[in-house]
Amino acid sequence: MLVDINAYVGHWPFKQLKHNTCRLLLERMNRFGVDVSVISNLNGIFYKNTQSANEELYEEIKSVSEFKERFIPFAIINPIYAGWRQDFEICITKMGMKGLRLFPQYHDYEINHPSFVELVKRARDWGLPVALDIRMVDSRQRSWMDIPVFEGNAAVKFDIITREWAVRNIMPIIKEVPDARYLILNIANSIQLDPEDMDVIKRADVLFDTSGRQIRGEDNLYELLKRFGNNRFAFGSHSPILDYLTGRLRIESLSEAEADEPTKEMLRSGNAKRILNL
């Protein structure tokens, strides 16, 4: 079995996307042997009312019976938007959403914002995983309307502070709600953690996906498995923004000495099934 824990439908305002509907995504899943995909609606990152995007996804999935069997919908909730508590309840109890995808950078709140903490605690209490993307798109290819890349004097060569995350940037919410379940997706920047944070990660229920560019070189998947454990990674494509195969190839290219077949099965589906309660 193969489970993709990081996929989307919908549009990105600054980039043309392909295979970004349920029907087209399912075609790719069938072509490349993916059984189930966790999906959210990209439109929810940009709509002022994220619930409209959740409704779009709900209507699309219920339109074809096979979609209900192959897609696991995650709701996008903005905890600083009025009515988010009602949106959360509707998404879970009426739409059957199975988790949350949250975007502090795009919805412009701090990761320790009280409403964000409350939302993560509600997800925990409902037994729902919370997904956080380290990065959505490469900030070197950007629009003036995208999230800021510079703070301070951008003209100064070394005064560049990106709003892209590294893994350490999500640690405050994991420390605040250590008993929630987390999906950390598209690792594009530093994975280095100090000993205290590493201890928190190892005690928490955290799953990283294989889509991010940082899972290469010295931080290749084999080295990360040794550092974090075989139960901490799962296949993710970050489709349709990234290509559909790289995340899978990072698993299949592991030698027998690096990962035996039971370990690869954990990466293909076992770890995902555990955190998603499949």
UniProtKB/TrEMBL annotation:
Q: What is this protein called?
A: Amidohydrolase family protein
Q: Which Gene3D superfamilies does the UniProt entry name for this protein? A: Metal-dependent hydrolases (3.20.20.140)
Tell me which domain of life the UniProt entry assigns to the organism this sequence originates from.
Answer: Bacteria
Residues covered by the Amidohydrolase-related domain: 11-278
